[in-house]
Amino acid sequence: MNTPSRRRILSTALALGLVGCGRQQSEEQVVGTVPPTGSSVADGKQALERLLAGNARFVAAQEQDLDEGIARRIAVSKGQHPFATILGCVDSRVPIELVFDQGLGDLVVVRSAGGALDQSVIGSLEFGVAELHTPLLLVLGHQRCGALDATIKALDKPTAHPGKLGYLVDTLAPAVRQTSGKPGDRLTNAVHANVTHVLAELRRSPVITPLEQSGKLQLAGAYYELDTGKVTVES
Q1: Calpha distance 97→116 (Å, rounded)
Q2: Does the annotation place 145 within a ligand binding site?
Q3: pLDDT digits (tens, 9 = 90+) for 72-112
Q4: Which residues pair with 136 in a beta bridge?
């Protein structure tokens, strides 16, 4: 059996080392050509405008060619500069990045059923605005929300709920009760009321409130239509 010589082994190792160095250098060069995400957003107003422009592209099926390749992955692995923090529902029909036509490193996304708030959700939103310094915090409700629909049915016909579903109903119930007896579609009213309720609760945060009062953070609510894909700002 032929045994490779020591010289051949050393030569092969040296060649592989040079290839590795070249690959590392080329990756560093690529990273240098990729601008940090969110760099073009100066404040909450511009951040909201950027989201709505992306949503307009989504509605028209003219999404931008997002850079989600190797270069972008390397760039965001070095640090992140998202331009907005968004609270949305877990509904599979409302993928936040797709709805706003944004890519890797652009958004801080927190999702819970119906946009329900608890300590973990609020803490995650506080992290987005205070630690990652996003100038916009958007609460996004959506058409035909299953979690709020289930809450309406649970309040109309009280029953025991397994696991933590009862906690979810209790959390979403205040918004549903606010719409009792009002004209219009009950579920749609509940979704809008919940966005308003969540914003009011977030403004009680000792982290979020000072940022908004200082002008460093803008809070906004919005509504997503499943039928059209359009996002409409409410407040």
Answers
A1: 20
A2: yes
A3: 899 889 999 999 999 999 999 999 999 999 999 999 999 99
A4: 218
For residue 142, say whether it is annotated as part of any ligand binding site. yes
pLDDT band with cut points at 50, 70 and 90 for residue 39:
low
Burial class (CB in 10 A: 0-12, 13-18, 19+), 86: buried
Backbone φ and ψ of 39, nearest 5°: -70, -20
Strands annotated E in the chain: 84-88, 107-111, 136-142, 218-224, 231-233
- Domain boundaries, given as residue ranges, for the chain: 1-33, 38-233
3-state secondary structure of 221: strand
For residue 22, is pLDDT > 90?
A: no
Say how many residues make up the chain: 235
21 among the known binding-site residues? no
Both structure tokens of 136:
């916009």
Question: For residue 37, what are its two tokens?
Answer: 């995400």
- CATH number of the 38-233 domain: 3.40.1050.10
Report whether 81 belongs to an annotated binding site.
Answer: no
Q: Which of 55, 63, 68 is nearest to 104 (CA)?
A: 68
Q: pTM of the prediction?
A: 0.83
154 within 8 A of 172, measured Cβ to Cβ: no
Ramachandran sector of residue 217 (left: φ over 0; alpha: ψ -120 to 50; beta: rest): beta
